[in-house]
Design brief:
By secondary structure, the chain is α+β, with helices and mostly antiparallel strands. The chain has 15 helices and seven strands. Helix 6 crosses helix 15 (about 310-325) and helix 7 (about 160-170) packs across helix 8 (about 180-185).
């Protein structure tokens, strides 16, 4: 089953001066550059806050990098980057050699718990975190998604950043300034979010608890994914009940089917059905009790990304677990 291909858009020379694709090891659409140019002219001192008066929205993530780039801050995280250009051969997949620790650190900017590596934060308000979504590190962002604070559910909300401003403006019942409105009309994608989402849904093998689901390649012989040995309702009940008891014997009994499924995942990986462990890992990561299963998450998800050839995502997930365990992540 083929993965959806994001429409490739032209990236200008000005964007290349920021070295975004080199230092982040992922591709960006032109909306980042165009919005940043407007933000710098709208609020010269702090472009990240350019949308705050209108939408109570703060630009974050990659825009934090751009802010520091603009301010020329003496921060070792943002200088002397030695990333290599992305490979032009899409068929060969991700270039493992160019995924540096600096790139992984950049992807941790404004990242929160229950944000999988596919989710790259780009803006936030008081109630939601918004981000670019890429199913694999080698593709352009498919759309912009949102995640409510303290919730693992992720929802497509806009086709790009300008469409996001339009969507949030309608929610808040506010109108952008004339210059911003002109920019939105000029640069916002004309693609239909429902059509993009529907096309991607055809490649989703399992929805998981985050609702946006996972995409894994399936061979002609149906190798790549096998379903879990339990329903989501059973898994939800199991995870919840195990956290409601302090009796270790009762907890072990409740989680017996869960542990059995983990054992089956090892066999699935041996037979190249990597989607099974990916699904279980993402379900647990997206669940309300996820912080109680840090060991399961850190063993399942990084390995799944490695097996799928998504090295950058594996490293981001490992770093996410490290920061969560140390208490430095929201």
């Amino acid at each position: 089953m083929p993965e959806p291909k994001a429409k490739r858009r032209r990236v200008s020379e000005e964007t290349k001066t920021y070295n975004l694709e080199e230092v982040f090891c992922v591709k960006f659409n032109p909306d980042v550059e165009e919005l940043w140019k407007w933000a710098c002219s709208s609020n010269t001192d702090n472009p990240q806050d350019s949308l705050y008066p209108l939408l109570n929205l703060k630009l974050c993530g990659v825009f934090k990098y751009l802010q520091d780039f603009k301010d020329k801050k003496e921060n070792t995280l943002f200088k002397d980057q030695k990333g290599k250009p992305a490979s032009k051969d899409k068929g060969k997949g991700e270039d493992k050699n160019r995924v540096s620790e600096e790139s992984v650190k950049l992807h941790m900017l404004d990242r929160e718990w229950q944000c999988p590596p596919e989710f790259q934060p780009c803006a936030r308000n008081k109630s939601h975190l918004f981000g670019f979504w890429r199913d694999t590190p080698t593709e352009n962002p498919i759309f912009v998604v949102e995640k409510k604070n303290g919730c693992g559910v992720i929802t497509p909300v806009a086709t790009d950043l300008f469409d996001l401003i339009r969507v949030l403006g309608k929610r808040e019942k506010v109108s952008p300034s004339k210059d911003l409105d002109k920019l939105i009309n000029k640069h916002a994608s004309t693609e239909d979010l429902r059509r993009i989402t529907a096309a991607r849904n055809k490649t989703v093998v399992a929805k998981t608890f985050n609702k946006i689901g996972i995409v894994v390649p399936i061979s002609k012989n149906d190798v790549g994914y096998r379903p879990l040995t339990m329903t989501y309702a059973e898994l939800d009940k199991m995870l919840t009940k195990s956290c409601e008891t302090e009796d270790e014997a009762k907890k072990d009994k409740i989680l017996a089917p869960f542990d059995e499924c983990i054992n089956y995942i090892q066999f699935a990986n041996d037979e190249c059905d990597y989607g099974m462990g990916f699904e279980m890992g993402m379900c647990v990561y997206s669940h309300a009790t996820s912080r109680n299963f840090m060991g399961t998450i850190s063993s399942l998800l990084p390995l799944s990304y490695d097996l799928l050839g998504r090295t950058l995502y594996s490293k981001i997930m490992r770093k996410t677990c490290e920061e969560a365990e140390s208490g430095s992540m929201l």
